[in-house]
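Weekly sync notes, structure subgroup
Attendees: PM, AL, DS (notes)

Item 1: joint prediction request from the bench team. They want all two components modeled as one assembly rather than separately. Inputs as received:
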Amino acid sequence: MPDTSINIVIGGEAGQGLATVGQLMARAATRAGYHLLVNQDYMSRIRGGHNFFSIRMGPEPVMAIAEGIDVFVALDGRTIDEHRDQLNAGAIVIAGEALDTAGLNALRVPFKELAPKPLFHNVVALGVLGAAVCGDVTILEDLLRQTFGKKGDTVVQANLDVVRKAFAWVGEQEFDFSCIAPPQENPGRRLMLDGNEAIALGALAAGCNFVSFYPMTPATTVPITLIAKGAPLGLVHDQAEDEIAAINMAIGASYAGAKALVATSGGGFALMTEGVSLAGVSETPLVVVVAQRPGPATGMATRTEQADLNLVLHAGHGEFPRAVFSPGTVEECFSLTHRAFDLAEQYQTPMFVLTDQFLADSYRAVPPFDLDGLPEIAQPLMDAPAPYKRYALTDDGVSPRVVPGFAEVLVRADSHEHDEQGRITEDPANRVRQNVKRLDKGNGLMQDVIGPEYYGLDESDEAADLVLLCWGSSLGACLEAAERLNAKGLTRTAVLHFSQVYPLREEQFMDFLESAGQVVAVEGNATAQFARLVARETGFVVTGSVLRFDGRPLSPGYVLKGLESII
Amino acid sequence: MISIKQYGEFETSWCPGCGNFPLLESLKKALAHLDLPPHRVMISSGIGQAAKAPHYMHCHMFNGLHGRSLPVAQGMKMANPEMTVICESGDGCVYGEGGNHFLAAIRRNMDITLLVHDNQIYGLTKGQASPTTQRGHVTKTQPGGAPSEAFNPVAVAVAMKAGFVARAFTGEPEHLTEMIVQAVNHPGFSLVDIFQPCVSFNKVNTFGWYKERCRVVEDHDPTDWGAAMALADEFGERIPLGVLYRGERPVLATPEPLARHRYAAGDLAAVLQSYA
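Output from the run, pasted for the record:
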């Protein structure tokens, strides 16, 4: 199947407003009915440097980032130097007159002529870009009205004038670029949002009404979204003094009846780990979002990696059950966060949503989430008959959890080993009973495991020559790599993607691994952490791997290149 | 009327003569005096001998991690503003391991009461210097004497204009009860730093040592910040007890118990619509 998508890259310095141009363009494409996938590449600085915003859009579903560029908006000279080698044949370059575009198929934009005030130069860029890809100016006009509406009619009108002028200017130019194919059919109303926004919305849909956090890229947009959308509806939020305070506050709030979430990245999560253990022993429901970036320590703050799987699997001293979700798409960010809240309450133990910078910042156009179709979220009790035992021994290990303050029963939660009433004790038999009780909850969690998705061959039940084993955000790169391999007709390739990486249930996937000619792990880390987890849990050893740990997201091209030496 | 008996009597793991006994008794008396039934009180504690106190009374209790009793207490209060929230722990837990939380809690000013059992030593781990141990105090881990200047919690709290700052001593139990009552009644963050002799591991700051120095202040206007700073700085031959500072600051409060909070389906749909 020929690739019908185009890849737009908007590059420039931090502070030039390129993310605004990118977001408006992506939203316009969404409204026009296109599929899209955004990759945001930015440096840990507020001004200067080199950032870029890529939008891969097309009439058919877009799964992964692209390496080549078809439409290139350069807001500074460095951007041209950085990306010149990526330009596809026939690519068009949109750049200011002052920039050196010699030898390129360029639309040289007279920014000063189209908008005397530099403030409007990003709207000029937006207009030229929209016109160059044969977009509909009215969609951009509507977006500008919405975006600047709060600033008053004068500001709106000024922006509309600029965007129309830019469209008109493009109409007068002679340039060589074929329009993108029109959307296949109107896909209906869709939402444009990134992974972190979808996590926040999934949390709200689950009734999340408390978030405490300490800012850390790339997790901060989760609390930002929760506050922007949830606080007007009663969500309580606190920016804590540190991550240790954040998780302990969330645990206190959860104990007292809130549906609580914390979000952080690797370094902040490392600080939270004693709190994770506290949620485990005190059996307090808690959802922890970990948005990965490269480590160790500060690593690369605004880049992506999948290297904190081991950390999240093992965080917290002692033994207690947990589940770890690893969404592969924006839709899964929503649905799995919702599920994490349900399971956190059902099993009264911490749940993890493990994402990464790439997915966190990656906008996609998705059908509206079906709020009515979501399962009911488990709720705690408000009262219980006396004598109430917070940690009562039960068949499945789950004790009735009462929220304190709504009845006369007293609720005692404890970080020490405790008896059924929640009082400190070092009695060895009690210790064994309580420890077994907590771990027994893992049996229920095991029953609730979401198995991996197997993206098989078109000829259904035939075993694949090659299975790409992946988890989390690397799904799209693997799917497209497999599609390209299958299109060549040489290596029949399937993808096995885990959106829940712990616990693992062998019977859900061992057949796929054992029947494959070869299994290759594709991960955004240097040590194939998930493949090693599979080996530890099942004994199945994955011998080949394609690993990326340069801080950039996995792309289909990277996967295919890595496979060359393996298959 | 609530009776102290409703708060119960329990076997403890404290040493005979420990200052925690009269402190626990004063807390129960204060809560009964405030007419608060046990199920309207949530106590958050950390780790240490002091932090075991809520195990020895009837109340809602979250006995969490070392140093982290204040974040848990504030989480509780945000989740249910209708409850009385008390945070109780020792000097090592609150001022050492949890020092950053102490500063942040003063700044936030939620309506919670912090009771610090201050015995100027680590009791549970058998006698190492704590943040309030006086410089030069010899211990097994500080054989040359504690090298750092002692932390003065009330001076820091007054300097930060915490809403209610008091000092008390278990050797003055009626005064201590009164301080707890006033602290719980104060709308906003309140601190009572309570001298509570450790009979096993602090041979310097003994009951007699405190008794000799501690005096309940008279003729002090706690709304006079300058006078409060001067009093809070006194720690030597004379140590003032009582309400050192009282001020009014905006209280950070939430409107309703979150356990009852639900989003309306229409509101969630509107949130989704904003991404179209």
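Discussion: The longest strand of chain B covers residues 239-246.
Action: AL to compare against the crosslinking data before next sync.
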